[in-house]
C-alpha cells in the first residue's frame, strides 16, 4: 500500500496544535505554515514537523511537494477541524465520532485502487447532503483532501477559492472522487488567523472574476449567497467536449 503523510495547512494558529493532534489522532503531522515566525511558534507549541510555504496557496503546494518527493500520498487538513463523524447515508446525524487517521486508513484503500489522483469529503458536515456513498467530478473543498503524486498544483494567482480551480484541473485530467462516509466539521469563520485574516469583498470578487475568466461556464455565481460561487455540475462534460455551455 502506498504510504501517506498527514499535513496541516496553518497560519498564526499555533494555539490550535493540540486540538489538531486530538482530531487527527496522531502527533505525526507536518504543519505547513507561512513563514519562519510561524515555524518558531509552532515548534515551541508542540509541533514536531514544520515547513514553510509562504502563503495559503503556497502552503498547499509545499505540502504536495513535500509528500510527492517522498513518493507518498498527501493528506491535507486545515487547522480549524473540529470533529470527524461517521455517516450512515440516511440523511441523519449518527453522532459517532472518529479521527482523521482512522477515516484516511479506511478511505485510502479504495482511493489507491481507483484511477483518480484527487479525493476528498463533502463540504459540509450536514448528512442531508451526503446520502450517496460517493460522487465523482464534483467540488472537493480544500480543508480535507487526499492527493496521489501528480504534476497538478494549486494556482498561485489565487488567494481565495483555490479549491475550485484545483478541482477543475483534476476534472480536466483524470477526474476526482468525493467520499461521503465521513463528515468533517471545520470552524470556517470567526476564527482568527488563516484566510480569515485577509479575506475581503474585493479579494473575493477578484478570485471569482479570475475563475470565471479561466474556466468559463464551469463557474457560476451563487444566487443565494454574496461572494460565493458554484461549480457547474456538468463541468466534466464541458471540459471534455467542444461545447461551450451545458448549464
Q: How is this structure best summarized?
A:
By secondary structure, this protein is an alpha/beta fold. Helices cover 30% and strands 21% of the residues. The model is unreliable at 243-247 (pLDDT under 50).
Number of helices, counting only DSSP H or I runs of 4 residues or more: 7
Count of strand segments: 13
Weakly predicted, low-confidence segments = 243-247
Structural class: alpha/beta
Q: Topology as H/E string?
A: EHEHEHEEEHEEEHEEHEEH
What is the rounded distance between the termini?
Answer: 40 Å
**Outline type:** globular
Strand content: 15-25%
What does this structure look like?
The N and C termini lie far apart (40 Å). Residues 243-247 have low confidence and may be disordered. It contains 7 helices and 13 strands. It has helices at residues 17-24, 36-44, 56-68, 100-113, 162-172, 201-215, 235-239; strands at 4-9, 29-33, 49-52, 73-78, 81-86, 97-98, 118-120, 134-136, 144-147, 177-179, 182-186, 219-221, 229-231. The radius of gyration is 17 Å and the shape is globular. It is an alpha/beta fold and 247 residues long. The strands form 3 sheets. The protein has an 8-stranded mixed β-sheet with strand order 3-2-1-4-9-7-10-8, sandwiched between helices.
Short key terms for the protein model shown above:
alpha/beta, 247 residues, disordered C terminus
Task: Itemize the secondary structure elements and their pairings.
Layout: E1 4-9, H1 17-24, E2 29-33, H2 36-44, E3 49-52, H3 56-68, E4 73-78, E5 81-86, E6 97-98, H4 100-113, E7 118-120, E8 134-136, E9 144-147, H5 162-172, E10 177-179, E11 182-186, H6 201-215, E12 219-221, E13 229-231, H7 235-239
Parallel strand pairs: 1-2, 1-4, 2-3, 7-10
Antiparallel strand pairs: 4-9, 5-6, 5-11, 7-9, 8-10, 12-13
